[in-house]
Design brief:
Number of helices: 16
Strand order of the largest sheet: 6-5-7-4-8-9-3-10-11-12
Helix content: 40-55%
Strand content: 5-15%
Length: 516
């Protein structure tokens, strides 16, 4: 049922009305897949990924339960749902064209265990998203912005977390001079940021930052047969750190938005991005971040990227963003509480009315594998809400085995490219060299000051026992004695302040990178 310009989603038959399709020329107008747990959202995401791949459109999606890895393998008649799939295919009129099929898949994993490592740099993440990730206050975010500004002005590359940690230490030591230009730099704020960085390290955030960083071009592969590559981010372990998960996906969206050229209204998307568990992006999000997401959602379609939010309830997505999601698939919502009933009513009101369908009742009553759908039609007009039986998947339903995953990784188009971490010269190494140089200079100056009194004592002893008296005028002698007294006073002051200060510098800066 796939046609050259649209993807068959389901429907068909007297009970469900006409077949429902996603038009490729409106697929970049974004979409929503919503529904309670266990109602079939994952299978719907799977069949959409299949459809886009078959049309030559690369896909990026996150696999939060491990089930979507089955896209890399063809379905089987031995599967327990094989009979159900055939019955459904017959019911919606696609039995003759229904066949099992595998799709080209690239596995990614932030931790590098179930896929190719996927990384970015601290500099690419930027202070806004990093502040969101670290849950910083406004004052702490201000200090982090100063750190990024200073790093940029002084040519200090920020690749990984140790670069940022070293920069913050240096910022604290130089805060008096820097505060005059950039504003107050509080030691307490720096300490709070360092503590949050430590928490991020403990959550595995160290693996996210570093090199080689992900090249966006590697998400756009198309096979020689014309199939778009399906990029699957293994997120089952990543979900243990939900803010890290949400921030990474938002960073990826932002990078796509910043990097891709304008293409207007393409015949089909250049990439379709599925944001699963989308509520994690908006939970307790500051207004600046929500505004950023809204900007990206509004403008990234002109870059040829379609974004599909997957969540349990449409109410999880802010209204301004929800209004930009033109293609919608709503699985069942259960109205057990007053809040649930309100959310159900609001969800029904977002669809174009169908005189033959009570939308609110239908959303509550649709079964597993069924949904209320509405897709953009000609001239971008929303289609009427339609009760739809979702087509069965062609790829394997459920996860692949570790051996099958390893085989897919071995034949990946980016095999070996990201496996070995790089550690180029960056802020950490530059600041370490500065610290070592300052410590060496302090030690040399201290040694010179300690040597000066000994030389003076030897000079006096030599005059005492030489038997020669040098006659000078009283005024010149007084001046000499005064000069000598002044010099001795300054030397003592240096011993009391300068030497101690240099020892502290050598102790702090010299020990800063100890054990790194």
């Amino acid at each position: 049922m796939h046609q050259s310009d649209q993807i068959f989603v389901g429907g068909g038959g007297a009970e469900y009305g006409e077949g429902q399709f996603v038009r490729l020329d409106y697929a970049n107008r974004h979409g929503l897949i919503a529904g309670a747990t266990g109602t079939g959202k994952t299978v719907t995401l799977q069949i959409l990924a299949e459809g886009f791949s078959k049309m030559g459109v690369p896909v990026f999606l996150s696999d939060v339960k491990g089930d979507l890895s089955g896209l890399s393998r063809a379905g089987s008649a031995a599967h327990k749902l094989h009979g159900t799939f055939l019955e459904r295919a017959e019911k919606i009129g696609v039995l003759d064209s229904y066949a099992y099929e595998a799709f080209p898949v690239t596995f990614w994993d932030m931790f590098g265990k179930d896929g190719h490592p996927v990384r970015t740099t601290v500099a690419e993440m930027g202070p806004l998203l990093l502040s969101r990730l670290l849950e910083l206050t406004e004052a702490q975010e201000g200090v982090l912005n100063i750190a990024f500004r200073v790093a940029d002005e002084q040519g200090l590359a920020l690749f990984d977390l140790k670069d940022l940690q070293a920069l913050l230490v240096w910022l604290g030591e130089a805060r008096k001079d820097l505060s005059l230009r950039y504003g107050n730099i509080s030691v307490a704020s720096i300490g709070a940021i360092q503590r949050r960085l430590l928490v991020l390290e403990n959550q595995g955030g160290t693996e996210l930052f570093g090199e080689p960083a992900l090249e966006l071009a590697d998400l756009f592969h198309v096979t020689p047969e014309g199939y778009g590559q399906i990029n699957i981010l293994s997120a089952d372990k990543l979900m243990a750190s939900p803010r890290l998960y949400a921030t990474f996906l938002l960073w990826l969206l932002s990078e796509l938005f910043e990097s891709l050229p304008e293409v207007g209204d393409p015949d089909k998307p250049k990439l379709v991005f599925f944001f699963d568990e989308a509520h994690l992006l908006f939970d307790d999000a500051p207004k600046a971040l929500v505004d950023k997401v809204e900007q990206v959602a509004r403008l990234i379609r002109s870059k040829g990227v379609g974004v599909y939010f997957c969540t349990q309830n449409p109410d999880d997505v802010p209204e301004d963003i929800l209004g930009q999601l033109g293609n919608r698939i709503q699985h069942a919502l259960r109205a057990y509480t007053a809040r649930d009933r309100k959310a159900l009513k609001l969800a029904a009101q977002t669809y174009r009315d169908n005189p033959d369908l009570d939308i609110e009742t239908a959303i509550r009553e649709v079964g597993v594998g069924e949904a209320i759908t509405s897709f953009l039609q000609r001239k971008g007009i929303p289609g009427m809400a339609q009760r739809t039986l979702i087509r069965p998947p062609s790829s394997q339903l459920g996860p692949v085995s570790p051996m099958e995953r390893a085989e897919t990784l071995a034949y990946s188009p980016v095999s070996g490219k990201y496996d070995t971490r790089l550690d180029r010269k960056s802020a950490y190494e530059v600041l370490k060299a500065r610290a070592e140089k300052a410590a060496a200079e302090a030690e040399a100056a201290e040694a010179a000051e300690e040597e000066a009194p000994a030389l003076e004592r030897e000079y006096r002893a030599a005059r005492r026992y030489s038997g020669t008296r040098v006659t000078r005028s009283t005024s010149r002698r007084s001046a000499r004695e005064q000069d000598f007294g002044t010099a001795m006073t300054e030397m003592v002051m240096k011993e009391l302040t300068g030497t101690t200060g240099r020892r502290m510098v050598r102790g702090i800066l010299g020990g800063l990178f100890k054990g790194r």
